[in-house]
Amino acid sequence: MKIKSNNAGAPVAHWRTRWPELLVAGFLFALAMLVITDSLRVGSGWGDDGPQSGYFPFYIGLLLAGSSASIMVSQLRRWASDTSVFADHEQLRLVMAVLWPTVLYVGLIFVIGIYIASALLIAYFMMRYGKYRWMVAWPTAIGVPLFFFLVFERWFLVMLPKGPIERLIGL
What we know:
The protein is mainly alpha-helical. It contains 6 helices and 5 strands, in the order ββαββαβαααα. It has 2 domains: 66 residues; 80 residues, no CATH class.
């Protein structure tokens, strides 16, 4: 972290680009290695009837691993001279304002199901950041998950995670 001053002379802390870039590239490299390993486990060659199930994921994993490794090496080579700014505290605060409700949403999917959790998330964002009144937010928040319920579960016959309330009302 580096502290500079803004135009008004007040100190502004910001994070440099090097650590976030290196960590994301490392995470994507690890993910690529997982994809490659699993593709080799299920078969990544060409069978008598065409490509095996791991054929395309294997090559996607190789591309991702190569790209990630290239970014990591590039970042390490320019480590000392990299002074570019990733984000200041205000920008990180805005990211966290979206990240924490989204993390809570993902957790709620396992507890109350995807449809009710989605309605709560949509209503929260519409009322908090869109400044919509509840008369607009709640019909939209209920309508969007209802639309996706009809499309996925009735039309495509793809079941999405249900919670106890959704099971209770027969969804």
